[in-house]
Amino acid sequence: MYFIDAENVKKVYAEGRQKHTVAIEDFTLQVAEKEFVSIVGQSGCGKSTFLLMVAGLEQITEGRLTIDGQPVNGPDPLRSIVFQEYLLFPWKTVRGNIEFGLELNKIPKKERSNISSEYIRLVGLTGFENRYPHELSGGMKQRVAIARALVNKPKVILLDEPFGSLDALTREGLQTELLRIWLEAKCTVLFVTHSISEAIYLSDKVAIMRKRPGKIKEMITIDLPRPRTRDVFISPEFREYERYLKELVWEDL
Amino acid sequence: MRFNYKKMISPLSILALWEIIGRFIWIDPFFFPPPTAMLRELYAMTITGEVFPHIGISIVRALSGYILAAFAGLTLGLLVAWSRVVENIADPLIELVRPISTFALVPVMFVWFGIGNGSKIAIIFKACFFPIVLNTIAGIKGVDKKLIQAAKSLGAEGMQLWIKVLIPAALPMIITGLRISTAMSMLAIVGVEMIAADSGIGFLVIDAQRTFATARMFAGIIVISLLGFTFDRIARFVENRILVWHTETSLSGRMT
Ligand SMILES: Nc1ncnc2c1ncn2[C@@H]1O[C@H](COP(=O)(O)OP(=O)(O)OP(=O)(O)O)[C@@H](O)[C@H]1O
Ligand SMILES: [Mg+2]
């Protein structure tokens, strides 16, 4: 049985009485536990919609969506989502943001700060614990958002274009760090991106979506050895994956 | 908030010009008592201590109305933002009463609460309530939907979502409403004391005008202006203390 199991999922957004948008339809995707799967597709094809449904923040209209055999029923800290816009709590420090999930669970202060220190180290923010979000760079903010999501020890972490608004260099640095963090945190990752090379570099599998109705068109297994270094970008296999995936994405345009 | 000496130039020039007009050019000092005369009057009021009870009673009235309005406004604002039902009941009432000029309600308040302190506090309440309630509603409703989603995905729900996310996120707006209302309370107290009172700083000014003591009248106005200024500074100070993270993030909501 698959860890994330979406079968013929349909999502209709109803806006008012008349207007309906079919965001995704006939959407089928299976992800094994601890797998790193990227979803790539044109803007508006329903990538975020699917992530929100896995997070339990949007309801599915039709079909079946189970996580670890359980139908998704509302949000759960075991399924954390990270957005492109970071969405940190501006009134909390780095440590305060990261401890948010622990605070909700009424974990005592001492223990909370032990746990958060561990995650602050994991995302490389030691020394910045007491900064407020407005005192951080974009890359640092996204590290905080990732640590904040990891602190609940989620089984699934959902990343919706997390590096979309970062400059190329910061982005490359964070990709490599994400791989390291993923290996340490041992969770299942669903990663949405517009960058095909990013998807190949990070993933076990890349799912290509098509538009109208939004559904998975093809799922490609990336057979590159791990741990991967950035050298992989210039390997012929990588180039071949890139060429093939680009073809698939452009087909619909 | 550093003291800017350049900003003293224009008010001081006006006062100097006024002094010159009042002293050397033939204008009845009844209309333009020279600033030195006002200051002399102000000094006399202070020395005899006669001004302090007036200031005291004005502050007590303003503060009572303000505190009541703050409690009622925050409570109703949160309830409206929380429940559709409450919103449907309260919203039309708010929209109906809000545009009525505060002073149009003075006669009503006299009828209901008498001409003592009750009606004055009620007027202050009317003046302060709406900025607080409206900013609270707008603040909560304006919280980024995605921020709420992020919080929910981290496990926040129900009361915790309100206390740990919605209210802190809305706090800049809420505090702005509370600050605007401090100014409102000062405006309203002076007005209502001029209409009907036998004490208070507003009374002092209108009483001076009625007895043709214009220097004294202007001295009272200086006191009012100093009071307003002080309250505004205190409100800003408190605002900045609570919103350290916000004032540095953006300058919105600040009118410096
Ligand atoms: N809350 C909503 N209400 C109504 N329609 C929506 C809503 N969210 C998304 N949609 C619609 O559903 C479709 C899929 O949107 P979605 O945001 O999932 O796309 P996406 O693949 O994430 O796009 P992008 O790459 O631009 O982020 C779009 O047509 C969009 O207009
Ligand atoms: Mg999206």
Entry summary:
Chain A is of the alpha/beta class and 253 residues long. Chain A is 34% helix and 26% strand.
Helix and strand layout, with pairings?
The complex is a heterodimer of chains A (253) and B (256).
Chain A: E1 4-15, E2 19-31, E3 36-40, H1 47-55, E4 62-67, E5 70-71, E6 79-83, H2 94-98, H3 100-104, H4 109-122, H5 138-150, E7 156-160, H6 168-185, E8 188-193, H7 196-202, E9 205-210, E10 215-221, H8 236-251
Parallel strand pairs in A: 3-8, 3-9, 6-7, 7-8
Antiparallel strand pairs in A: 1-2, 1-4, 4-5, 9-10
Helix pairs in contact in A: 4-5, 7-8
Chain B: H1 9-24, H2 35-48, H3 51-82, H4 84-97, H5 106-113, H6 117-141, H7 145-153, H8 158-195, H9 201-210, H10 214-242, H11 244-249
Work out the number of β strands of chain A: 10
Note the total helix count of chain A: 8
The count of strands of chain B amounts to 0
Radius of gyration of chain B: 22 Å
Distance between the termini of chain B: 9 Å
Could you tell me the mean pLDDT of chain B? 90
- Element order, helices and strands of chain B? HHHHHHHHHHH
Largest sheet of chain B: none
Structural class of chain B: mainly alpha
Shape of chain A: globular
Kindly list the characteristics that best describe this protein.
heterodimer; A: 253 residues; alpha/beta; Rossmann fold; 2 domains; 6-stranded mixed β-sheet; 4-stranded antiparallel β-sheet; 8 helices; 10 strands; 26% strand; globular; B: 256 residues; mainly alpha; MetI-like fold; 11 helices; 0% strand; binds adenosine-5'-triphosphate; binds magnesium ion
